[in-house]
Specification:
This protein is an alpha/beta fold and 265 residues long. The protein folds into 2 domains: 187 residues, P-loop containing nucleotide triphosphate hydrolases (Rossmann fold, 3-Layer(aba) Sandwich); 72 residues, Alpha-Beta Plaits (2-Layer Sandwich). The chain is built from 10 helices and 8 strands.
Length: 265
């Protein structure tokens, strides 16, 4: 297998499926929280972004574009470090968008009827059915707003973003695990030998870009970064030409980078 991303609504069984798959397939399981825990600066950036977003109406969210792009870039770079370590199950909304160019990516959506979701919330949190319903509604609304803000998608519940949708209304988590496991045996969802190099190239490119976006002298530029082995190509579309030497210096300081070419479009 390669990478499985699992997306879900609040208390839809996504965590249970991820853990069961990890045990069945013998591979690592990670959440967005795990990625953030390994990068305190990223957690602080998310908190800042969430606060700023909530203090602005949606029509003013464009003013946060640079902060949003930096967050996505750094999160993607942190997540790619996980993928370099081998097959991964990542359960978090938006994971399939962060890893969209990654070979062997299986995108799974987990759904469950509201009655089942309510039972899971009440079992874990206690309270009444009405309180559980309010909790689910608030969490789902926040997820929708966050994904709309970050990725510009109206709803990640749209099936176009997935290869497989698993409904836990009738089947058990064990049965759902078997269905997803079967999908991992198809060639399009498995890593070939050449895919390992592609993973390393993507990881290096995202790492370089995240560092450029965190550097005071280069973060204002719109840059695209590609890697081929140890050779990195940085393409700019603005005033980065004046900082060409600085960009090269920063890139060459990143472990794994051997040569740098800065191109202006």
């Amino acid at each position: 297998m390669g990478i499985i991303t699992i997306s879900r609504g609040t208390k839809s069984g996504g965590l249970l499926l991820a853990e069961a798959l990890g045990e069945r397939l013998g591979c690592r399981v990670a959440s967005r929280g795990d990625v953030l825990a390994g990068n305190p600066g990223l957690q602080a950036l998310e908190n800042e972004l969430w606060e700023e977003m909530n203090n602005r109406p949606p029509h003013l969210w464009d003013s946060l574009e640079s902060l949003r792009n930096a967050y996505i870039c750094i999160l993607r770079a942190s997540l790619m470090e996980y993928t370099q370590q081998g097959p991964l199950i990542y359960h978090a909304n938006g994971g399939q968008l962060l890893l969209k160019d990654t070979p062997g990516l299986l995108r799974v959506r987990v759904v469950a009827p509201m009655a089942k979701r309510l039972d899971m919330v009440m079992e874990r949190r206690g309270g009444t059915k009405l309180e559980a319903s309010r909790y689910i509604h608030e969490k789902d609304e926040n997820r929708t707003m966050w994904n709309r803000f970050l990725y510009g998608v109206e709803s990640l519940a749209d099936c176009v973003y997935y290869d497989q949708v698993v409904n836990l209304e009738v089947m058990s988590v064990t049965e759902a695990t078997g269905i997803v496991e079967r999908a991992t045996t198809y060639p399009c969802f498995r890593w070939l030998d050449e895919d390992r190099q592609a993973i390393d190239d993507i990881a290096l490119a995202t790492r370089v870009k995240s560092i450029l976006m965190q550097n005071f002298n280069t973060r204002m530029f719109t840059l695209d970064v590609q890697a081929d082995g140890g050779t990195v190509t940085v393409t700019g579309r603005g005033d980065e030409e004046a900082a060409k030497d600085e960009i090269s210096r920063i890139c060459l300081a990143v472990p794994g980078v051997e040569n740098v070419t800065v191109v202006h479009e």
